[in-house]
Amino acid sequence: MGTAVEAANKEATGSALTQKKPKVIFVLGGPGSGKGTQCANIVEHFGYTHLSAGDLLRAEIKSGSENGTMIQNMIKEGKIVPSEVTIKLLEKAISENENDKFLIDGFPRNEENRAAFESVTGIVPEFVLFFDCPEEEMEKRLLGRNQIDAAKPVGEVFEAVKALFTPVNDKAAT
Fold first, then answer.
1. Exposure check for the chain: N or C terminus, fewer CB within 10 A?
2. Residue 13, φ and ψ in degrees, nearest 5
């Protein structure tokens, strides 16, 4: 583990990020709190790049890499992926992107994650954007996304399902 090549690569990535001086904002909040919606608005209006820690982890798993297999096994076993792994994926995404303004969604999960991010990358976030939303409201939003009453007869349920698959312009024609 810790070969001279790995040390040189870490130093090269760290120095590249230090030279780039990216502006980072952590975006936190529960599922259904509006993080994704507001990140899309920030991207559109302020030109940030949206990086989702979860999406980066899923992409690494899908790549079939050794790292991806390790991540998949940890998740299967119900373990938390070490912050260093997530930080490396974030660091790579930041260094490979031409933009210098980033929204990091879903990370850090705790103070140790934040401190490790700053220590590894040398980047101190501008601020944390926390979407505070009551649990009842988040649940209402999540359940309101294409909610179908499955207690109805099979045919009625499928009519509701079909409506979701019908393009909007086809609906207007009927």
1. N
2. -65, -50
CATH of the domain at 81: 3.40.50.300
For Cα atoms 43, 48, 50, give the angle at the middle one, nearest 5 degrees.
75
pLDDT at position 170, please?
55
Q: Is residue 5 part of a domain?
A: no
The total number of structural domains in the chain stands at 1
pLDDT in tens, 39-81: 999 999 999 999 999 999 999 999 999 999 999 999 999 998 9
Alpha helices by DSSP H, listed for 21-153, are 35-46, 53-63, 66-76, 83-96, 111-121, 135-143
Work out the angle at residue 152's Cα, subtended by the Cα atoms of residues 148 and 158, and round it to the nearest 5 degrees.
60
Q: How many Cβ atoms from other residues are within 10 Å of residue 71's Cβ?
A: 22
Query: Model's pTM, two decimal places?
Result: 0.74
Q: What share of the chain is helix, strand, coil (3-state, %, to 5)?
A: 60, 10, 30
